[in-house]
Amino acid sequence: SHKSSKREWKPLEDHSCTDVPWLLLFIIFCVGMGFICGFSIATGAAARLLSGYDSYGNICGQKNVKVEGIVNSGLDLTHKKYVFFLDPCNIDLVHQKIKSLALCVSACPRKELKTLADIQKFAETNGSTLCSYELTPSEYTTDPRAAKLCPKYPVPESAPIPFFHRCAPVNISCYAKFAEALITFVSDSSVLHRLISGVMTSKEIIMGLCLLSLVLSMILMVIIRYISRVLVWILTILVILGSLGGTGVLWWLYAKQRASVGVVETQIAKDNLQALLVYAISATVFTVILFLIMLIMRKRVALTIALFHVAGKVFIHLPLLVFQPFWTFFVLVLFWTYWITVLLFLGTTG
Hints:
Blueprint: H1 2-5, H2 20-43, H3 46-51, E1 82-85, E2 91-92, E3 97-98, E4 102-105, H4 116-126, H5 146-149, E5 158-160, E6 167-169, H6 173-182, H7 189-201, H8 203-261, H9 267-296, H10 301-317, H11 324-347
Antiparallel strand pairs: 1-4, 2-3, 5-6
Helix pairs in contact: 2-11, 6-7, 8-9, 8-10
């Protein structure tokens, strides 16, 4: 009777559409999104968004129509394709925009310009005038209006943003300040500034480690197919040893750092000490929880081995399944690009 109560598993023969109401709702959403997209493109100034515009209403890279009562409007800026901000780091957080005079220029300054004479030399050699239109390059160092109509110097090294023709500073420091200002709940913003600077400095290492972890995951998946039983136990032991070792190293580093802080009392040293303490406590808590979980669920290891074995078989027979996360990620990127583009078009409708 026990055997007969067990239902023999068979694949589903009659395939039918499930969650029909949700499918209809999703179709309505897509149609609605399409309408919004069409409306934003029809009413939004796509040229203003892509080509950019200056503070006088001229679209960069084309001939403009004169607007009555607006100085410097209606200029022919066919050869001036890039938007340049005189003070790019002066950010107005309330209105979420750069509080600076914007001009159309023919080239972004690819090296730092320290003085008005450097700005004048850049205009003469590259033909790119970084001061407002009413000043000629010869007047940059002589006209008293240059203080207001020329960029705030030193002018940072900048490069055009791909597709959007805006000169953006290459140095990340002013954007780090921008991120700080947004996150107002951080009491000591200098800590965040150092954190962002640290991440930017180590970005190659971070990306390299992400790539390495991906490669190791792929290798592990192939290995699991052949030695799943042994591997699960090896991994379990390695995780336990790794957690213990990592926790021990963190506490040792904390003790060592604490002993040396008394000698050199700097803010960075205090930050490091505090960070090490947080990491060490977190690692200890994680290790204890991991031990308890492994103790309670030790009998489920056999099931885990079986699951890994089946998963390994699936990946061997369907190798393209490995790329599934990449496709999902790619589609999501496209979808978010679509959303952001529509949002930007709506922003330019005025």
